[in-house]
Amino acid sequence: MSNALFLTLLTGLQLGAIYMLIALGLTLIFGTLGVVNFAHGALFMLGAYLGVIIAGEVGFLLAILLVPPLLFLIGILLERGIIKNFYDRPHTDQILVTFGIALVVQELLKWIFGANNIPFPTPEWGSGVVMLHEYLPFLEGFVVYPKWRLILVLVSLLTVVALFVLLQFTRFGLVVRAGMRDAEILRFLGINIERRFAIVFGLGAGIAGIAGLFGGPVTQVYPGIGMAYLVPSFLVVVIGGMGSVPGAVIASLLIGMALAFSAEYSAIQQIIIYLIAVVVLLVRPRGLLGKKGVLE
Amino acid sequence: MIHERETGAVRGELVPVGIFAAIALTMPFWFPLIGGYSGLDTKILIFVIFVLGFDLLLGFTGYLSFGHAAFFGTSAYTTGLMLLHYSSEIIPAMLMSILVTFVLALLIGLLLTKRTGIYFAILTLAFASMLYRAALSIFSDFTGGDNGLTGLQSPTLFGEQLHGSSVFILVALFAIVGFWIALRIARSPFGLMLRAIKSNQERLAYTGVDVSLYKLWGFIVSGLFGGIAGSLMVIYEPYVATHFLHWTMSGEVVIMSVIGGVGTLIGPMIGAAFMMYFENVASAWIGEQWLLVLGLLFVLIVMYLPGGFVDGARRLRAWIRHRRSGRDAQTPAEKDTHG
To answer: Which helix (H) or strand (E) holds B35?
Structure first.
């Protein structure tokens, strides 16, 4: 394999990683709760801001322990406080209220921290570059890659695996998957679906927190990143198939690769995601792994 | 008999359009008295046109578009480019803008109106984002990139330069005609179809109606209102800002419609006026945080008063009437108005 191709693939993986993490939460929440969460970008942004502050005060390792659980908590509070009341209301109302929440979070962060980018330094152990040619014998000559970006890829893959295990091999996962199929029947079976809804929302928010914490040093931290990352993440969910977790993973990799391979033509790179989405929607309206009949 | 009914309908439109015209045309006289600067009234009326079209889609058809900036912005750029490269006359510029908006709405509509509401909201947002990105990258040679389109000559109509008050009258005329058309649509069989789509489109389809055709036309008409508003914006201020295409612009019309009262024509117009006025007045004493206050207000209204200001006024009136008439005068009809 030539060096250039390998590096482009790696960059594709890295670019797709953040979208993957945000899209996972989106598709999880949509699949189980049926809610399109326009506030998900805001949760990601909250993760990045909390990451900057906590990492700056007590170090990055503690931030890893604190930020995702904090976002989990915020997610649960949001679901119990606001989203819960919208399950029986039209989809447009759900979208409107989550959009409103996104706006409030964005303006709140702008008010407290200002509109400018806050530098988010990578921790000592994650800075610098990795000499890839030392580990991968098929590479020729001298190949380096920023360490933090490799860590980001690793963290996203670990998150995907953890989520897969949780959904596939635990009782909680079984119930959630059943809920994605048919929440009504599940309720008839006497399962406390309300509590699990809250946990799923929290889980989605927690994953957004991971995305914000590990992605923050790469994406910059300013009040616009929420919306800037929400739109492509939505497209990832649509391309992958609404409510499909494996679909979101595949679509984010696809998008990441497209971004990496179009990097030489920067004008095209700006809109390549949208072009892919249009093509997929024309050819396969339900998305790559979307279930038949789900919002087709 | 048909003739009689028609005159009745015309009279039914004449009164609201007349009242609106009276309020709109006298704005330059009373608006400065309540703290509005001259020029803000023009902007309010431009957004009234924009929001009327938006509400024909959301309030009547039930489709939430998060990409209406696409029409506003594209039309604004078209008008700007026409003023820059063709002539300063506004008639060809506006006609071209309307044509471009129509084609854009047709293309997006064909692709999206067959979709459910959720897809529609996401994908309209995505399309508008694509146009925004494209304007800043691929088309930056034409659009001026981040700086927006600058250096436009001041617009003229039949050789006469358009200034503050003549632009205001032009915009007011468009707003009045726009309101009249929206009213006609709302009361027409076409409007009835749109409302039927909102309440249950499957059932409508079973009766043999080509639902997607009505949705497509509803979407196009809605987009054209946005296009005309965008074109007028550039005539009012000969400069095209990149944020005309940005999602915040789409968000603004969403907020205006919802706080005013989706599904009525009067509500979104009040919402537009309120938001522009609030921005102007409130930013004087709370600065940039006016948007935060507005966001909170928006969330509260979505949660507790889904009908917006119009619904609030109706409930207040019912409550006052209820208080005045006392306990024993409560009739079932009155109870109804509480719900």
So the answer is: none
Rounded Cα distance between B144 and B140, Å, is: 5
Q: What residue of A is the nearest CA neighbor of B145?
A: A267
Q: Are residues B102 and B132 in the same domain?
A: yes
Q: What is the ipTM of this complex?
A: 0.88
- Does B219 or A288 have the greater pLDDT score? B219
Closest partner residue to B295 among A104, A227, A231, by Cβ? A104
Which residue of A100, A242, A277 is in closest CB contact with B295?
A100
* CA distance to partner chain B, nearest, from residue A136 (Å): 37
Give A106→chain B minimum CA distance, Å. 8
Residue B301 lies in a domain: no
Whether residue B103 lies inside any domain: the answer is yes
Instruction: For residue range B140-173, list pLDDT tens digits in order.
Output: 778 877 888 887 788 878 877 877 788 898 999 9
Within 13 Å, how many C-alpha atoms sit on residue A122's CB side?
17
Q: Against a cut of 0.90, is the pTM above it? A: no
Four-point Cα dihedral B128, B133, B134, B139, nearest 10: 130
| For residue B1, pLDDT beyond 50 | no
The range of the structural domain enclosing residue B326 comes to: 307-339
| Residue B302 within any structural domain of the chain | no
**What chain A residue is nearest to B113 in terms of C-alpha separation?**
A296
Q: Do B118 and A231 touch (CB under 8 A)?
A: no
Q: Write out chain B residues lying below 8 Å of A242, CB-based.
A: 118-119
**Chain B residue whose CA is closest to A107:** B292
Statement to judge: residues B52 and B131 lie in one domain: yes
A238–B291 CB contact, under 8 Å:
no
- Do B322 and B258 fall into the same domain? no
* B42 CB neighbour count, 10 Å cutoff: 25
The per-residue pLDDT for B327 is 56
Q: Same domain for B228 and B316?
A: no
Residues B223 and B325 grouped into a single domain: no
Q: Does one domain contain both B231 and B146?
A: yes
Domain with B91 in it: what CATH number?
A: 1.10.3470
Instruction: Say if the Cβ atoms of A91 and B291 lie within 8 Å.
Output: no
Identify whether residues B41 and B71 lie together within a single domain: yes
| Number of domains making up chain B | 2
CB-based contacts of B136: which residues, under 8 Å, 6+ apart?
A270, B143, B145, B146, B242
B206 and B140 in a common domain: yes
Give the DSSP H or E segment for B127: helix B117-136
Residue in A closest to B287 by C-alpha: A111
Out of B127, B134, B303, closest to residue A82 by CB: B303
Per-residue pLDDT for B338 more than 50? no
CA distance B11 to chain A (A): 35
A36/B123 touch (CB, cutoff 8 Å), yes or no: no
What is the tens place of the pLDDT at every residue in B39-68? 888 899 999 999 999 999 998 888 899 999
Could you tell me if residue B96 is inside a domain?
Answer: yes
Q: pLDDT per residue over A217-274, tens digit each?
A: 888 899 989 998 999 999 999 899 888 888 999 999 999 999 998 888 877 888 888 8
Supply the angle between the helices B247-260 and B40-55 in degrees, to the nearest 10.
80
Alpha helices in chain A (DSSP H): 3-33, 40-58, 60-81, 91-113, 132-135, 147-169, 171-181, 183-188, 193-219, 225-240, 245-261, 266-283
> Which residue from A95, A103, A278 is facing B298, i.e. has the nearest CB?
A103
